[in-house]
Amino acid sequence: MWTDRQPAYHNRLHIERVPAQTIALLVDYGVPPAALGVDRLFEQRYLQWSGTGPVCLNGAASANVSRPGLERALFGLAESCGVKFCIGAVPYAAIADPARLLFDATGRAGVTAARRWRPANPVVSRTFQFTASPAPHHATLALAAGSEGYAYRLGNRHGLCLGVVGGRDLIRGQWPEIRERIVRFAPWIVSGLPGADGQAGRAGACSLQWADAGPRAILIGDAAIARDALSSQGLAMGLGAALHAVSKAVIGSTPGPQRNGPVQRAEHARRVLAMISAAAFGSQPLWKEYGGFLQKAAMKLA
Question: Which one of 11, 25, 64, 78 is separated from 279 by 20 to 30 angstroms, measured CA to CA?
Answer without folding.
Answer: 64
